[in-house]
Write a structure and sequence with these properties.
Blueprint: E1 23-28, E2 33-43, E3 46-57, H1 59-80, H2 89-103
Antiparallel strand pairs: 1-2, 2-3
Length: 111
């Protein structure tokens, strides 16, 4: 099984959920990170995002996840070929990040 952890037995929760997703949202503060997963579709002619699940983790766990992704994705691409980002997606993501950061409360000055 791909999720095996040496020295630990893996037991799947009765509430375990697997979902196909194409849309992600993230909220991050100094205590928690929430990543919401969903997919885009049309309902009644209107484009909507259906949220499927939310993963909540500490910033430390987020950093570990980032490390795993940074190590795994290049190895995967080396094996199967490059994965292209949709045109304009990187700019869209960076714009959203910049807007979110600009709205974030500023820390109180240290005295």
């Amino acid at each position: 099984m791909a999720n095996e952890i040496p020295g630990k037995k893996l037991i799947r929760s009765k509430d375990f959920k697997s979902a196909v997703v194409s849309n992600f949202g993230m909220r991050l503060n100094d205590n928690l990170c929430e990543i919401t997963f969903g997919y885009e579709t049309a309902i009644g002619g209107e484009e909507v995002v259906i949220e499927e699940l939310k993963a909540v983790m500490t910033p430390r766990s987020l950093k570990i996840l980032l490390f795993i992704l940074q190590q795994s994705l290049p190895a995967f691409e080396a094996a199967i070929g490059g994965i292209k980002m949709p045109t304009g997606k990187e700019e869209e993501i960076q714009k959203t990040i910049n807007e979110t950061i600009s709205k974030a409360p500023k820390p109180a000055p240290k005295t």
